[in-house]
């Protein structure tokens, strides 16, 4: 693993590297594509292990059904496409052929969120976390950076059961060092603070860190928490963060309904009612440069800071 701190690397790139390396060790790993091996970065695996790579064309439903059949035969299939298609187009088949019989299939969704940029609203998955975590038996993982993605792929290969891995198109800063330990079902506290807890996932973790620095200049002490496993969620960590701060704010490049915000709200409403707000998308995205879209929808560091200050004023902090 050669990733350097603060280097901008897309999680889809780290996935491709990890798949090729760890797939070589796990002889039962096979890869299924929907004519997007270049985009989802499975081409390296395909070149190394052509007998374990299958291109189904633009036919995600056929792809995931075939993955279920291969899992029955003891294989570990990674079924890969853009997130809006691997989860949306194939949802019924994931439900009935993979989750219901609890098959050991890994669904990979790349190009998630508005960070997908110029591809526009039709390709910017903003509902994938919600529809995947609603399924019984399905785990949902959204890594924060290249290091975490790389480590998560090996962990997923060793773990049994349906799993959804959410990846991004554009580069995001590497925030973890090589000593990072990824564990399914556990989050990480990256910075400590007593005023607000910024609980983020995926590409928004680095934005939460940016916002924490800007908030510090305003005298606001922000705790930043990475929740890379949205299901099963780290309930104990979320409750602990709520106890130690005055306001919980979730951040995600996803719709605020049913995603990380919904998952955190479910935990707090049941086990530790606390003041909470959500930062995320409330409409479809649009075509544009990723950095411009983040600025427009207030998902960049400055936009997050602005929203946090507004929320604090709103709840009387």
Q: Could you outline the blueprint of secondary structure elements for this entry?
A:
Blueprint: E1 8-9, H1 11-25, E2 29-33, H2 43-48, E3 53-55, H3 60-72, E4 76-82, H4 83-89, H5 91-99, E5 106-110, H6 128-133, E6 139-141, H7 146-158, E7 163-166, E8 172-173, E9 188-191, E10 196-200, H8 204-217, E11 222-226, E12 229-231, H9 235-244, E13 247-255, H10 260-271, E14 276-281, H11 290-296, H12 301-315
Parallel strand pairs: 2-3, 2-4, 4-5, 5-7, 6-7, 10-11, 10-13, 13-14
Antiparallel strand pairs: 1-8, 6-12, 9-11
Helix pairs in contact: 1-7, 3-5, 8-12, 9-10
Plain-language structure description:
This protein is of the alpha/beta class and 317 residues long. The chain has two domains: 8-173, Thiamin diphosphate (ThDP)-binding fold, Pyr/PP domains (Rossmann fold), CATH 3.40.50.970; 188-312, Rossmann fold (3-Layer(aba) Sandwich), CATH 3.40.50. It has helices at 11-25, 43-48, 60-72, 83-89, 91-99, 128-133, 146-158, 204-217, 235-244, 260-271, 290-296, 301-315, and strands at 8-9, 29-33, 53-55, 76-82, 106-110, 139-141, 163-166, 172-173, 188-191, 196-200, 222-226, 229-231, 247-255, 276-281. The strands form three sheets. It has a seven-stranded mixed sheet, with helices on both faces. It has a five-stranded mixed sheet with strand order 9-11-10-13-14, sandwiched between helices. Strands 1-8 form a two-stranded antiparallel ribbon. Helix 8 crosses helix 12 (301-315) and helix 9 packs across helix 10. The longest helix has 15 residues, at 11-25. The radius of gyration is 19 Å and the shape is globular. The termini are far apart. The mean pLDDT is 96.
């Amino acid at each position: 693993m050669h990733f350097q701190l603060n280097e901008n690397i897309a999680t889809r790139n780290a996935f491709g590297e990890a798949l090729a390396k760890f797939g070589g060790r796990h002889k039962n790993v096979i890869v299924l594509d929907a004519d997007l091996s270049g985009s989802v970065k499975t081409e390296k695996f395909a070149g190394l292990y052509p007998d374990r790579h299958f291109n189904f064309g633009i036919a995600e439903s056929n792809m995931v059904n075939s993955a279920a059949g291969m899992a029955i035969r003891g294989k570990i299939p990674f079924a890969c496409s853009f997130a809006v298609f691997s989860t949306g187009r194939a949802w019924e088949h994931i439900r009935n052929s993979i989750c219901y019989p609890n098959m050991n299939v890994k669904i990979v969704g790349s190009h998630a969120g508005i960070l997908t940029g110029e591809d526009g609203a039709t390709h910017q998955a903003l509902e994938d976390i919600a529809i995947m975590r609603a399924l019984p038996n399905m785990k949902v993982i959204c890594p924060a950076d290249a290091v975490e993605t790389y480590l998560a792929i090996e962990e997923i290969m060793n773990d049994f059961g349906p799993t959804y891995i959410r990846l991004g198109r554009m580069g995001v800063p590497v925030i973890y060092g090589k000593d990072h330990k990824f564990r399914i079902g556990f989050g990480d506290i990256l910075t400590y603070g007593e005023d607000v807890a910024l609980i983020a996932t995926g590409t928004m973790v680095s934005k939460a860190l940016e916002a924490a620095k800007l908030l510090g200049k305003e005298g606001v002490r922000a705790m930043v928490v990475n929740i890379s496993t949205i299901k099963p969620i780290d309930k104990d960590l979320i409750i602990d963060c709520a106890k130690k701060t005055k306001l919980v704010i979730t951040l995600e490049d996803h719709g605020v309904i049913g995603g990380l915000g919904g998952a955190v709200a479910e935990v707090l409403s049941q086990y530790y009612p606390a003041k909470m707000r959500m930062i995320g998308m409330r409409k479809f995205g649009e075509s544009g440069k990723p950095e411009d879209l983040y600025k427009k929808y207030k998902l960049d560091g400055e936009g997050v800071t602005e929203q946090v200050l507004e929320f604090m004023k709103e709840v009387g902090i």
